[in-house]
Design a protein that fits this description.
Aldehyde Dehydrogenase, Chain A, domain 2, alpha/beta, Aldehyde dehydrogenase family 3 member A2 (chain A), seven-stranded mixed β-sheet, 14 helices, five-stranded mixed β-sheet, phosphoprotein (chain A), NAD (chain A), Aldehyde Dehydrogenase, Chain A, domain 1, EC 1.2.1.94 (chain A), homodimer, 17 strands
């Protein structure tokens, strides 16, 4: 019943109305900003403890983005929150017609373990900006960050409006029986279905940021060295544990070995001779995932890497070649530093291959030929796309970030967060004059009037 | 039962063929729909009359006019709506193309309702076609004449594989809901809304739920009561009260209650004459089940006007109840009938508290000469939409989204909002392979210097 109490208190706090004024919201966001600046060391330490993330990496992947989002939201909030007048027609010329952006009430944010700080903070920023109370449930898998968030938030924010709930599956299941006005969940497809089913009981709208296998097509006509460097960066970042990492490569058999060589060279540039001792190379989050990823290597042709050390959850950057579409590594989202290459004879084959599978969260195409890139976009579907790079569509906050099909529903980031956590209320205010113009709508109606 | 599996699979194969995607094709289909509405107007009006005793002129203005307007708007605007939407770039993306691409979702399911059986199937269908999808249409079996007509007409005008109509009742709909869709738009009640969403969850299908609730109507003492009551009467008794955004009940000060009753009575006389039953403008309850449900709400109530009924013809006279207790049955569920309870409140604060102690309604109405008071009610309550000093009208302003919140629904549609509801907004960033030196900063080996930069 602890959950019931926490949520009940958040609802009472929301009903008090204090989260609604722009001043209050901005004050809370400013406090969050102070928290991130003052507790930077602690946040980086937690991320290092959870994922072996190096300070500079953690800063640029998690903290920089949060500070940027806070600055953007605090600047734009007054304009986002203002009533949005709509184009009027002949009937409404004298009236006020506008969309009012209103808080939904009590919102639940369920974070993920791979970018445990930003994946809780970025939705939280949007939910606070929209005037809601927010229950925050960080992932228990990234336990150090979860504990830190649970400690820090009450020190900086209104503790009744923005409580943190920690715990694992039993606690989350209990939490999901409570009634919320929106749930934003980041994680996997299977649990996404569970979250939506729980939400259905209360008619709670959901934003589900899920995953999938994000394909990466490399055209023959492209600067392979540059393409492979960019792919290497996005693939092995956070030890492959990135929801929009390029999951696997599709390319012509004739360039497969070049691709391998280029990636190997880049890995050397990035992590040096001994990857394990590079401070920039992360670890698999826990033993369970370690074993899961290692299991994907069975029966595969390892062109590079494959080394591992279970005690430290280390898996070396690995490339697999001539991978069969039916193998285990091509079934589920890899979420690890294993990069399969599947050969295809043409872009048509690549498109068919992509379309025969679930819609991914991201899709990548590398080519000097912009027409080809546009073609792939128009003949496939995915949450988002970056052409000639990876990951980067995530960092432009004017682009909505979200999935489609099994990779999710809804989107957020920047203004899209604000809208996700708001109700767009249609408002029409007339006056009681000019009643004669209404005569035409009243009975008795005759064909003449029509 | 595998028939639905077959129908959905055929729609999916048709969508996968790619033919629903070109703007020309979509506009061609919309033009065909427009032709259908114009050529078959008589049949459509006849079906609506058979289902709801809706008169020709009423049916035309409530269902056909809106559909023709939506078709014209969508056909005109589609090229601009469907065009990629460039987004504001930042320093890092200055050289790149960054835009939102609006793409079809795939196979969409539209489940209609029985109270405005034509427009509630057509308006979503228009949006879904405009967005490039295949669409499975499931009209409500309760309005059986319109359902049958839609099932007959659509294949005569539209691509039959892309836009099939599935008819049937609860078993057929349940079967349909086990199939996989890329979006479901359901119009109906909250209880079934939960069932639809639960079914959708199994496939991670996003949903738009247009549900209902009890839409409150607050009448301030400071207001032109005659005008207010005439507008309320119009919106309440239209379609025999069977309108999702009808003013469900009135909240007003006890001192004006009898004036309100008198004004409504006078308006009813204006509208329907002495003998309501013989007015061609007064509809009927859709079936016996709903007739009995609505009549049951009158038990123990103080009937200030009306109350007459005739089960054989599903006729219930326009009825007003006064001094209604907030705990009575008529104040529990959405009435969806020509029964108007008046609950007295001593102040606008009390009205606001009353409204907030209940589920968020689909619509909210406030009548007052005092615009400040209206704005206050808006800011201290929540509802899908709102009209001040009138009823229903926010639902016909083209630039306003139409949808609920909380128990009254999720998502919205109408006009451009339909197009967006049935589209995937795909974030696209296209860079080139040059300027690689700019990326050095992000690559390992990372160092504090890089970050400090």
């Amino acid at each position: 019943e602890r959950m019931e109490k926490v949520v009940g208190r958040a609802r009472a706090a929301f009903n008090s109305g204090r989260s609604r004024s722009l001043q209050f919201r901005i004050q809370q966001l400013k406090a969050l900003e102070r928290m991130v600046q003052e507790k930077e060391k602690e946040i980086l330490a937690a991320l290092h403890a959870d994922l072996h993330k190096g300070g500079p990496n953690a800063y640029s992947h998690e903290i920089l983005g949060v500070l940027g989002e806070l600055a953007l939201v605090m600047e734009k909030l007054p304009s986002w929150a203002a009533p949005q007048p709509v184009k009027k027609n002949l009937m409404t010329m004298r009236d006020e017609a506008y969309i009012n952006f209103e808080p939904l009430g009590v919102v639940l944010i369920i974070g993920a373990w791979n970018y445990p700080f930003v994946l809780v903070m970025q939705p939280l920023i949007g939910a606070i900006a929209a005037g809601n109370a927010v229950v925050v449930k960080p992932s228990e898998v990234s336990e150090n960050t979860a504990k830190l968030v649970a400690d820090l938030l009450p020190q900086y924010l209104d503790p009744e409006l923005y409580p943190v709930v920690t715990g694992g599956v039993p606690e989350t299941t209990e939490l999901l029986t409570q009634r919320f006005d929106h749930i934003l969940y980041t994680g996997n497809t299977a649990v996404g279905k569970i979250v939506m089913a729980a939400a259905a009981k209360h008619l709670t709208p959901v934003t589900l940021e899920l995953g999938g296998k994000s394909p990466c097509y490399i055209d023959k006509d492209c600067d392979l060295a540059v393409a492979c460097r960019r792919i290497t960066w996005g693939k092995y970042m956070n030890c492959g544990q990135t929801c929009i990492a390029p999951d696997y490569i599709l390319c012509d058999p004739s360039i497969q070995s070049q691709v391998v060589e280029n990636i190997k060279a880049t890995l050397q540039e990035f992590y040096g001779e001994d990857v394990k001792s590079s401070p920039d190379y992360e670890r698999i989050v826990n033993k369970r995932h370690f074993r899961r990823v290692m299991g994907l290597l069975e029966g595969q042709k390892i062109a590079h890497g494959g080394e591992s050390d279970e005690a430290s959850c280390f898996i070396a950057p690995t490339i697999l070649t001539d991978v069969s579409p039916d193998s285990k590594v091509m079934e589920e989202e890899i979420f690890g530093p294993v990069l399969p290459i599947v050969t295809v004879k043409s872009v048509e084959e690549a498109i068919d291959f992509i379309n025969s599978r679930e819609k991914p969260l991201a899709l990548y195409v590398f080519s000097n030929n912009k027409k080809l890139i546009k073609r792939v976009i128009s003949e496939t579907s995915s949450g988002g796309v970056t052409g000639n790079d990876v990951i980067m569509h995530f960092f432009l906050s004017t682009l909505p970030f979200g999935g489609v099909g099994h990779s999710g529903m809804g989107a957020y980031h920047g203004k899209h967060s604000f809208e996700t956590f708001s109700h767009r209320r249609a408002c029409l205010i007339k006056d009681l004059k000019m009643e004669s113009t209404n005569k035409i709508r009243y009975p008795p109606v005759s064909q003449k009037k029509v």
